[in-house]
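Succinate--CoA ligase [ADP-forming] subunit alpha
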Amino acid sequence: MSIFLNENSKVIVQGMTGSEGRKHTQRMLASGTAIVGGVNPKKAGQSVDFDGASVPVFGGVAEAMKETGADVSVIFVPPAGAKAAVIEAVDAQIGLAVVITEGIPVHDSTSFWAHAQGGATRIIGPNCPGLISPGRSNAGIIPANITKQGRIGLVSKSGTLTYQMMYELRDIGFSTCVGIGGDPVIGTTHIDCLQAFQDDPETEAIVMIGEIGGDAEERAADFVAANVTKPVVGYVAGFTAPEGKTMGHAGAIVSGSAGTAQAKKEALEAAGVRVGKTPSETARLMREIVGA
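Structure:
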């Protein structure tokens, strides 16, 4: 099985006619994703050809869902229009909205996150690589040819570390890999994915990748201790980061001992999570667990 995304998922792309949307739609199609439409109000009624596959463009998410049965939207709309695009997807009650866009103002992210509460739409992102269930479907920008279908679940704040871990454990393979994004306000969290992997009968073990800043990893550690019976290994990016510095993502702010890689490592280990000091060591720990 997989979480959130499978071979039956029907995907639309908001912003498909832009340069990034077009490029990554081509890559998603090549990896076997069922792309059933794009959304651009200015180009409704047109279609876009991708190596012989003609994908229709609709004027809105609700129309696209009605005509195609789509249940996933991947959003490549630029930051200025991203809030409206996500709210449109939420109002149409699409099941999953994957927000790839980087640079969305935190106020806008907070607004569409609040708008989605209690509704039918799960948001992944923003500022994330999306998610992939290898061999089934790929919604976002994750390379599809670096791993295979298997029995590990992966949830990660970092896009590039998602790819590295997928490659390091490519011979074992993954049920689903989810890049949740590193912004201060995101939709789906480590905890959401941990629960879904815990409930997925084909996921045998879980890799969790975090980074300095905030307390998401500490909260995830508490959740693992109370709710997760499957083995979990972890990696926290930023062991060598100087204290008091903003490192990369807007969310990676360290204050005193709170939010440091060491503090997160200690919290995870106290919950029974084995934590590697490098991505390769983390992969080795997972190999020991699954016997590969």
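The first helix runs from residue 19 to 30.
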